[in-house]
Amino acid sequence: MLRSRVFALAPWLIAALCTSSCRSHSDSAPTEGPASAAAAGSAAPGANDPGGKEQYFPLQSYRVGPYAAGGSGFFGGFIDYMQLVNTRDGGVNGIKLTWSECETEYVVERGVECYERLKGGLNGAPAAAMNPLSVGIAYALIDRATTDKIPLITINHGRTDSTDGRVFPYVFPLSLNPYSEISAIVNYVGQREGGLDHLKGKKIAVLYHGSPYGKETQPIVELLAKKYGFASTHIEVPHPGTEQESQWLQIKKLAPDYIILRGWGIMNPVALKTAAKIGYPVDHIIGNIWSNSEEDVIPAGAAATGYIAITTHPSGRDFPVLQDVDKYVVSQGKGNMEDAKRVGTGYYNLGINNGILNVEAVRVAQGKFGAKPLTGEQVRWGFEHIHIDDARLKELGAVGLLQPISLSCADHEGGGAVRFERWDGKKFNVISDWIKADRALLRPIIEESSTKYAAEKRITIRDCDGEAKL
Amino acid sequence: MSSDASVWQRAREPGAAKLSARVVVRAALVLAAAALLVALPLLVDDYVLSAILVPLLALSLAGIGQNLVTGYAGQLFVGAAAFMSVGAFAAYDVHLYLPSTPLLATFAAGGLVAAATGALFGLPSLRIRGFYLVVSTLAAQFFVEWLFTKVGWFSGNSSSGVITAPPLRIAGVSFSSPGGHYWLSLLIVAPLTLAAHNLVRGRIGRGWMAVRDMETAAAVVGVPVRASKLLAFAIGSFYCGVAGALWAFAYLGTVEPHGFDLDRSFQILFIVILGGLGSVAGTFLGAAFIVLFPIALDQAVAAVAGRSVDPGLLQNLEKVLFGALVILLLAKQPAGLARLVEIAWIRARRFAARYAPRSRS
Question: What is the ipTM for the molecules in this complex?
Fold first, then answer.
């Protein structure tokens, strides 16, 4: 009897719930798999020339789901930059860039499936690096990418201890790891209070996204709290974060001097709106690196005016590289963004920065291995020898958009500085120069964690000095 | 239907030579299938192994667990992912805090802890049934997720709450290649599937079905109703727990508490409903449908549309298409894929019988 009832209800159940729950495995994966290789030719210049003259970038993108704004902006910027390099420069030293997408929806096992599908290259063009833009997916790919010798780029996010390239030879938390991020924010708050010694006795709360990404910074916040004498509280917002009443009631009771908003996606505007509702001053909420886009503040309306966030990739279209993108790509109708108005916004410019760094790695590696399509291992060498100073930034047209950055075998982050920007209700205005994290303070903690990982996984630590001599 | 044993018996009787030929063919088929399964890594590439077959096996195992409880014992529950996560974290903790435990023992430990948890959360089934039971089993889902997020001890106090799989070695043999992951999964899933297959045809399984079909009648004929229900929850959760450990260790190599969220529980429930409630083989069909079909659909759509259509729009279209196909399938055949295949088999045999020369009466 019960059985027949279940059967009768099954279609209804499936229909009602499938939209949210079947998605883990149950729909679509890549926008372009091997099966559609031919289709890639229409948009990727030269993709139909398999004569070994191309470098391939597999894109584990996400354009649907709760984090679509981040995914479409980031991958749009990344693709437009590669398009620019192809159109304006004819590729990197004549080697054209090609790419294809695979939809992950920010779901870990989808990301793994995409990785396995794309890692082999496209039409003979070898894969240069993986850019999943998801902490969860990155964690699941560490072993795989290391075995396959493909660099795994986690720009501005990822596992903090993967900064130690001696233990994580193929993982790159480029430009800003989570610990640097917190350190820079605390330095800024100290500045605002009139010096780091004024932090004593203050209360700082971290409102974080309930995910590995959100939890990553707890140890460093506690360490800095001990060092500078402020009290820290961690408050979790479960994914996706559309409901935060109870968290903000807790904040009201606690009355912290500052809140670090460690959000992602829809959680951010909801936080700002709820803060306004309970009357928490918005200029005392400091947004972290994933809480700094236009998509985070516009939906919050007036509640967001005066909100301050950190950035490694200020919004705007005035940077020469953005003007080139407009001239060679967007105005030619080759732009990737469905809504051209989003060109120059936060996520898009992060995509541009990511494009610059990935392409620079290919260029540097070509300097050593020759102007030809390179393997992941060779591109890894390129990443580890990226050296972008002010002069190079000027050539790239990215002064102020990207920080000076130098990587090495042992240091896979390379940057560690952020700028602060304030939302005036219409746009973000940069209000500080590059503020550096206290990287010397962080390095021993990072090494402690990475050595522990190496012992657990029985990894032999690379001899970076020895490699440099080769 | 005659079981293998009776076929063997008859085969030994004088004058049953024809039947023994049938047995030989059958045994050869089974052996060929087993050989094919074992030799698969030599035939297909890494992508198929590590992105499709390994998750397929893990989800099928979890589906069997759900099917034992829901399809056989008739206890509706949502929260298989919770027991998967208990299994994964328990296996990880055993490895972490008792590092000398052999790998297979950690899987077993994961399963056993999940079984205990399952029996605990199965307690409401003694009092309530149907959709009320669904709601009360949901508690497991949320409690377990909360526990693993909140208490750092379970994830070895890693800052991000993510556990990292240990190196996969059994008796000195490494299983860390894609083929190794597959063999390890097969090594665990195949015997457990056989066990489930036998279990449901034995006393315990028949007890479950009696409870499912009518509790009062089952009690009257002497089936211990309460013990049957709890045993179903315990064994079902054991399967889910081992599947969770496989998912974490052999497939992803890492896992966070939210990796086993409500979505995953529904996914497993749908595997069972689509595959066929009360069918072990159907569970595999259901899992194959849920895992393979979207990937195939995506490749097909991408091949047709390519980059001419906005990728975001394409993704949403695929969702609609998949949902529509699921509804169509269940409307046409509510008993699931297992029944669909059975009907096709019967038709094929009828067809063969009609046209093939009659060799025996």
Answer: 0.83
